[in-house]
Amino acid sequence: LQCDPNDVLWCADMKHGILSITADGVVHEEVTEFEGEPMRGCNDCAFDTQGNLYVTAPAGSSAEKPVGEIYCRRANGETVRLDSGFAFCNGIGVRGDDSQLIVAETMTKSLWAYDIVSPGVVKNKRLWAKHPDGGLGPDGMDFDEDGNLLVAHWGGGSIDVFDPNGKLIERIKTPFEKLSNVHFGGNDRRSVYITEHDSDGLWLLESWKNPGQLQYCDRR
Description:
- This protein is mainly β.
- The protein has a single domain, classed as 6 Propeller (Neuraminidase), CATH 2.120.10.30.
- The protein has no helices and 21 strands.
- It is globular.
């Protein structure tokens, strides 16, 4: 889920594609197909500062069948495919200056980086980091204000922290194994909210050392 400045929630939905949900609970199907085909089940999404929404669509992919795709729904409503061939592309994040896109590929324990040239245009795909051993691999993510990336380690029982260059600098162990996402919030943006699937719970890591980077919804 991501929120825009108008308090509309945007959802990467596994069954229906890209949805928006207004404050009164009305659901709109924004993108349900691409080039005449149903959107391959969506998983996660992230806004840049201008309202362009980057989305992972991994359904049906695996290590043996790398058919996962990433998309961008531009702020003007146009949707473009950015790349394909992922072994379950999962979490996704945009650096706060809109310069870089990071995509988690869970089955290969990889974090891939792209340079963002313009909305919905990326280049220079490269391996940004390899996730630590143990568990399945990287899932959801969020940046702090200093450019560090916090990544949920599905099956690994930790939040793994990478510096702006992709170096692993910290592992925060958690009392659960199946972390699915992390997101900054709170009035000072230092609270880290964590979702997990051991008990389908929501947890809070208080007082992270840096505020989270400004979100699109903060730019009112």
